[in-house]
Design a protein that fits this description.
The protein contains five helices and ten strands. It has about 190 residues and is of the alpha+beta class.
């Protein structure tokens, strides 16, 4: 006889961690630095593996952004952002000022632009991570839908509601531009070539 999963039945709530506790788990070796996990609203979440299309989009965006933005900014591929007291996501790309990256005590606590490339993680990236980035006042957030070959651009964060007030979807025939980083503009088709 198969018994229901205790977590699914709602009998046990997961233990939520604060950011300082999460860092201690890493420091003492409970979580290895190479483990593909991130802290999202107090829960340690396993990151989904990357397929080839996912990795190609990250690589293309990283090369493009690094070339266009120059030395004043740092393009951080899959590196932590310490956001609030209970979240440390590792977005596929985050753009921070060079000053923020070099002066942060642990990891940067803000970003000008965050990009998540999604296939299996699309729902999590739209809802959970969108809420985290909006609450952290990230002014612009892109979700690259690899399967749908489109980019969702979120802007104007509502910190209290934990959501973005504006969202637009760009398809292959359109131009992607960042409102917070002037000059950062490219045809959407180039990401999916």
């Amino acid at each position: 006889m198969h018994s229901p999963d205790i977590l699914e039945s709602g009998l046990v709530a997961p233990r939520r961690f604060r950011l300082d506790e999460y860092h201690r788990l890493i420091d003492v070796g409970v979580l290895g630095e190479d483990e593909r996990v991130e802290l999202l609203e107090g829960v340690i979440v396993e990151m989904t593996p990357q397929g080839r299309p996912h990795a190609l989009v990250i690589s293309r965006l990283n090369r493009f952004m690094s070339r266009v933005l120059g030395e004043a900014y740092s393009v951080r591929p899959q590196l932590p952002l310490s956001l609030g007291d209970d979240s440390e996501p590792e977005p596929d790309l985050a753009v921070v000022t060079r000053h923020e990256e070099e002066t942060a005590q642990a990891h940067p606590r803000s970003a000008l632009l965050v990009v998540e490339v999604a296939d299996d993680s699309l729902r999590r990236d739209r809802l959970l991570k969108g809420r985290i980035y909006a609450r952290a006042r990230v002014p612009e957030y892109w979700v690259v839908d690899v399967t749908g070959r489109a980019i969702e651009v979120y802007s104007d964060p509502d910190v209290d509601a934990g959501r973005y007030r504006t969202m637009r979807t760009l398809g292959v025939g359109e131009m992607l531009s960042c409102t917070t980083l002037p000059g950062l503009s490219l045809p959407v088709a180039e990401l999916f070539a």
